[in-house]
Structures are given as C-alpha cells and as structure tokens.
Amino acid sequence: MDTRQPTGFASGMTEERLMIQQLARDFTRNEVRPLADRLDPEKADFPLTLIDRMGELGFFGILIPEELGGLGLGAYEYCLVTEELAKGWMSVASLPARGNAFYRGVSGASEDKSRKIAAMAQGRYLGAAALSEPGTGSDLSGVSCRARREGDEWIITGNKYWCTFADGADFIRVLCRIEDGQGLKAGTISLNVDKPRGELPQGVSGSPIPKIGYFGWKTWELYFDGVRVPADPEADDTGRAFQNTAHALELARAQTGARSIGLAQAALDHAVGYAHERVQFGQPISDFQAIRFKIAMMATKIEAARQLLYHVCEEIDAGRPAKVKTSMIKYLAAEMAEEVTSEALQIVGGAAYTTLHPIERFWRDARLTKIFEGTSEIQLRIISDAMLGKPVGKKEG
Predict the structure, then answer these.
(1) For residue 248, is pLDDT > 50?
(2) pTM of this prediction?
(3) Candidates 66, 84, 373, 377; catalytic one
(4) Reduced to 3 states, what is the DSSP secondary structure of residue 336?
C-alpha cells in the first residue's frame, strides 16, 4: 500500500517523470522487494542478475549524456528512481550511483573512455569508491593512502575503509595523497583500479566489515600494496581530487535524501496497512487517536522532505550553486527517516522487532543515512558556516 498522494502536484513533475517514477515503482514492487524480504534476513548478497535488469531499464545511465549511451536526464529523475528503489531495499537504491556518479571520472584515451561509459550506462562497467580510511572519515582532506608516480604508472600503497561493492564492481576509484620525488605530500588524486568483477584487484587484500545493516552487498576494509595503475594522459584532477570529490558529494547528498525518503515512505506504508489489520480492544488500532496522529505527523514530515528534495534537484539541474541546499536536504531527510521508521516500528510493536516484518530493515538502514555521505553534524557545519561565516581562529579541517 502506498499512502502518498498523487505526485502530479509537484511543480517540476512532468508526464515523462511520472512514467519514470512508475517504472521504478513497478520494478521495486515486483523484483526488488521480494528479493530484499528473502535475502536481507540472511545477510545475503543480491544476485548479479539484478544488475543486468537495472541496466536494461537504464538506471545506471540516468545522468549519462545520450551521446555517450545514457538517458541524458537529471538529478530530478535520478532521485525519483532512487526513492522508489529505496522502498524495497536501500542497498539496491544505492546501486545506480555505481554508474551515474562515476562516469565523469572514467579513465583512458577518448575512444576507450567512450566505450567504458557506454558499458557503464548498461550496468556492465560499474565503480566502487575508496575514499575513507581507518583514521579518516568526515575530513577526507586528511587521507594518507599514497600514490607515487613512476614513469607511465602510479603506484598506490595504503589502507582504505568503508569501500562498498569493492568485490562486485569493475573498478575501484581510490582517493590518494600524491607523493613527489622527496616523499612529500603534494595534493590529491583519484585513480581508477580496473579489476575482474567478483574479485579484488591484484595487489589488494581485504576483508568485509561486519555491519548491522545495508546488507545485499559487502563493505570492505582494503590494503593496497604497491598497486600499479597506468597514468591517464587526459586526467584533469591531479592535485585537486579532494576538491572534486567534495563537489561530487553534493549530488550524492541529494541522492541520500531520496534514499531516506524512500525508507521512511515504505515504513509508513507498512505501518498504515498494519494499523488497519491489527485489532486491539475490539477495534483496529487505526481507530485510536494516538496512532492516527502519529501517522499524520509521519506523512507530513515525509512530504516536507520530499518537496525540499524536488527543489534541490531543480537547482542542481539548472546548474545553480547547491552546496548548502544539498546539505539541508541530506540533513533533514536523514533525521526524518530515523524518526519515521522508529515511529513505524512503535506502531507495529513487538512484531516489528523481528525479521518477519521489513520495518526493522528500514529502521536499520535509515540510521545509516545520518552517517554516510557526510554525517548530520557535517551538514550542520556546512549550513551554519554559510549563514554565519566560518568560526574565527578555528583551524579548518
């Protein structure tokens, strides 16, 4: 049951967008949700055939220009699809980023790059991001994994943490600190390490991190031991990868807002259905004012976040500066999702504290949205700095 109102009232909603939304909604209902209900309680990975299906539907190429083999659409469509997928399984909702968020940094000569991007749009060349490290999370400017230039190659050495899909991807994008000839730190660079799907790259060892959620795929701790990568003659971010990564996080934060909204909506839908069916004291619990008011507040908060998300997507698609607004939607939606999924769990009661109902999955995954792509505290810092200026006398991280 979907309790949300028709979406045509949104200012930017077009017939094409409604069709894309419905396509993603049907796919989630028929294919994603059944997989999640079966595999998440087992902490099992989703099958690679799911990636093939998503590639057929164009989900990996939403942002990729048509001339490069994608759909040539924008952040609005990207987030519409993401929200629908998150209603089924947040891990699957995160999959489209493995193409859409990576195509600009594909390495190689022009012809090879075009071939890779076309394959990416079809889900046949997907990436994983190795950004964080055991001692570096929110402050990516402090990465210590290093890259040293030797002839026509870069040599990568160091540790990475929180690299989701490191095994299933076709390449890993590694954020590194550049070492010059004297071993000094001289800026940052992102390097793509190609590899066989289903394996770690040669020279990379690692182990899955034991998570409490975000199942469906593995998240890795990795060690790069002198891994050699061909130098890209067309690379334009040498020394500036941190700044480029920070800019890319803007779209990622909008997408996290969409993931958060999808989780909250799914939890609300389940709670509403349960409230109609659950009878206590001789009547459905949906008749009790306490339950009715909870549901009304949950629905209102979801819709408020959704409308801000649409606005933010329009700003991104128009090419207007959106750093602060992407932090706002990421913060608002993540905080809302944790609250709404928790309230949904309360409505369903003890049954929701089992893996027999999907609400515990929505609840676990919603909690993660307050942490990845920049914690809620980082978003508040970005917003407050924009409003008040940066603190005087404070060292900038």
Answers:
(1) yes
(2) 0.93
(3) 373
(4) helix
